[in-house]
Amino acid sequence: MRLLYSFLKELRLSTRSYYFYLEIIMAIIIIVVLRYVVPENFESSSRLFAYVSPDLADSISTKITDTHTGENAENTLILLDSIDAVVAVMEEDRNSVGLTVTSFQGSETPGTEIEYRLIFQGYESERLRNIMQASVSMIFAPPAFTGTPPKAAAVETIGQRNEHLSDRNSVLPPVLLLNAAFMGLFIIAAFIFMDKEEGTIKAFAVTPSHIWEYLLGKMAVMLLAGMLSGLMTVLLVAGSSANYVLLILLLAVSNLFGSSLGLLVASFFDNMAQAMGTIFIIIYLMAMPAVSYYMPAFSPLPMRILPSYPLLFAFRETLLDDPDYAMVLANAAIFAVVSVILFLLANKRYKKIITI
Amino acid sequence: MINVDDLWHSYSHDKDYALKNVSFEISKGEALGFLGPSGAGKSTTQGILTGLLPLQKGKAVVGGYDISKPAREMFNRIGVSFEQSNVYGKLTALENLEFYRKLFDVPTADPRSLLKWVGLEKVINKRAEEFSKGMKHRLTFVRSMLNDPDIWFLDEPTTGLDPAIAGQIKDIIKEKKAGGTTIFLTTHNMYVADEICDRVAFIVDGEIKLIDSPRNLKIKYGERLVDVEFIDEGSLQQASFSLKDEKERNALLDVINTKKIETMHTREATLEQIFIRVTGRELAA
User: Fold this and answer.
1) Residue B183: beta bridge partners?
2) Residues B69 and B134: beta-carbon distance below 8 Å
3) Regarding beta strands B2-9 and A114-119, do their DSSP bridges make them parallel or antiparallel, or are they unpaired?
4) What is the dihedral of CA A49, A53, A59, A64, to 10 degrees?
């Protein structure tokens, strides 16, 4: 019962402090951004604005337009009347490329030899520029292989699981990790420092209650806030496509991991100003695997050994139609054990540091 | 109720002791005042006896519980009032007491009655963060009474309070003492100690220099003089007579029998004067 009273007291204290609402407000901001700003899927094809000089032979003009208006055309071609018009439209549409095709000035047969110019925005990678250049070159000078197009073509992947999240939903795992799981690390430390400042830990220590009841009361509030913000975010962004049983389990263990780590960290400092540096370093470190999450090709060992790395991918699984149950459950079990160990260490520390 | 034997404590875990060979005992229903200047070791002693500081060396038993391994049940029987107010600022006065009372396994006092006792009945639903220093101190004080403790640790219970409130607090302590509560009071206020305590211990630099009742100390260290103002041949006269000297005692009797007495006072040494005389230090230091 004392644990319940401790939880209710912490809940009352939390709801009267802005730290508690920090997590919820962040969740609301994320929901609004993801639902109303971030598209379901980002456009993968860019528009190609082109100017084809009217003094070119009709056969050349037709070839250019045919190449870019087919069903499988990667880029949408929009023909414009002048080079100035191409530049002007490109300034409006930053996801576009420009192409001008004019008659080669030094040609002995005007209108039959061409000169083209690709216009980029400036932010494109060298690789993209080369691909575009090669693509345009092939329009005008296709390689002569067999002389006939292939009869069949196929694309295969070596991974067995190739289910993809929409671009919007793929933002959710890092959000869940940082807002629902690790925000508690910062907030629980803030609550501990508030108690230290007020001296209420000492008053608690001279009652028949155990320190673990005091600590668990705080963790329970963090769990409630984490679950609330996490479930709210997923429900309003991903809807019914998530596996909520796995999600709740993973949210719970990751939140307990974050808050028990926060308790342990806070036990080494007297106030927030002293602890701020360490807490930020931990949160930044935990955020680092997001790089590997978005660029799987970059997954060096230091990144993979961070606890947030497997959590990110486990969160991703909970959002898939066909999640890898074994992977999520294994992660949940490991983090549950680690959380218990961290909590026991924190409990030992607080027994030692609560003095006059 | 409290037995302390050869207590030593060092915050730095070396030879720099905050407490040295501290020994005393307190009987049931007795009030012992720990009198000493700041940094003398008063709060350290209370910290060890309430389990807030580890027992490093020596032996201490509180209410039958060995402090080297304090059982949580012990806290059902003790109450601790801290020198620095330590209540939840975000909770109201009533919520503070309601929360703490639920942590005990024994019957507890009604928070509203306690708040009324210290004049906080009109602000029970006000958050403690809006309280004045004195109000917070009173809230901290009554919280220590929630479980109706057998053994009551009071650290500077009247410090910083206005005289009226301080008087109220002293009356409550006296009432509890009369009801059989054992009291361990740490203070540097000699008047509070004199008024409440059956015995006082003078502690300086972590060492107890002397333990005795205020009365005995005054008898032992006081000058035992009587100051008299009387009318002699139409004019006001003043004289002091030593009660130790037979001639002066007779002279005093003569004045009483033959003159008109205006005022007469015994001149006893205060605890502060005795403290300075015994320890060579001032209490306020």
Assistant:
1) B31, B152
2) no
3) unpaired
4) -10
Q: For residue range A70-89, what is the model confidence (pLDDT) as tens digits?
A: 555 555 678 888 889 998 99
| Chain A residue with minimum CA distance to B45 | A356
pTM: 0.77
Q: Choose the mutation target among B88, B127, B133, B145 for the interface with A, i.e. most A CBs under 10 Å.
A: B88
CATH class of the structural domain A46-140: alpha beta
CB neighbours of residue B124 within 10 Å? 17
Q: Looking at per-residue confidence, does A104 or A201 come out higher?
A: A201
* Structure-block tokens of residue B1: 């109720």
pLDDT tens for each residue of B269-284? 778 888 887 887 766 6
User: CATH 3.40.190 spans which residues of chain A?
Assistant: 46-140
Q: What is the DSSP secondary-structure string of A249-304? A: HHHHHHHHHHHHHHHHHHTT-SSHHHHHHHHHHHHHHHHTHHHHHH-TT---HHHH
Tokens matching residue A182: 């690790």
**Nearest to A169, CA basis, from A222, A247, A95:** A247
Cα-Cα-Cα-Cα dihedral sign, residues A141, A146, A150, A153: negative
Q: Do residue B102 and residue A12 have CB atoms under 8 angstroms apart?
A: no
How far is the C-alpha of B115 from the C-alpha of B136, rounded, in Å? 11
